[in-house]
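Request: Not sure, any thoughts?
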Amino acid sequence: MDLNIILYGVASIFYLIVGGKIVSTFKKRGDQAPTWSLPVIAAAIVAHFWVLQSSIFCAPQTIWVTFGNSISAICFFSTLILFFGALYSRVHALYGIVLLIAGLGIWSPLLFPSDAQPIVGSTMGFKLHIAFGLLAYSFMLMSVVQAVLMSILNSRLKNHEALEEPEGIVASMPNLMTMERILFRVIFACFVVLTLTIIMGMVSTVHYLDALLAFDHKTVLTILSWLVFGILLLGRKLLGWRSRKALTIFWIAVALQVIAFLAYRFVLDVLK
């Protein structure tokens, strides 16, 4: 059996085991992930990194960015970020759900094969543009999960269910203000990395096209998403935007960013 297939399986199983354990065992605030979870996730991340780099860097001086590779990379960066976060702070539902997503997303290169041509001879600026872009999507994935969890908790509060004894994963969530604070920290990180993505994209465009920007749909939608994220952060800071208004603007920014690249790659690699 191919070594990469074995590593895909090992990483996937480890992600799913730990993610499932976290989601299923958190019954009240203050619950902690089992002590064995971090070493298991560390092993999964190492295995994931091996298959990911061999898939993206399929030949010397070559980079292969497909829909499947992108999904796998987004899952890798998300788990890596949360892994280091778990070393310094308490793990909660966000980590478990992202691990479950990663356990499935790691198979994307095999589930969505592509005949797209690899990019040969790419510059360091272009590689950084791709890396920052995938990292931005990773923060966006975490913010999406956090926003969904926050919406669930907010719905319970509106329906006065918070006065009852909470059950399941909701029971492990912090209070709504803490959930909101976590969400905006992740959104800010996404905004910063997205800014770096745009800057490195400009550097690459100058190198390849002798122009500051390439006015295609990816560039336009990415800049629009960046602007909406910036407006959201300013609105939160200056006007105190919260809950429904903040989440509505957040989903607009997410939709723009998904259409900018992931949906585009899905059409090219899967639907064509």
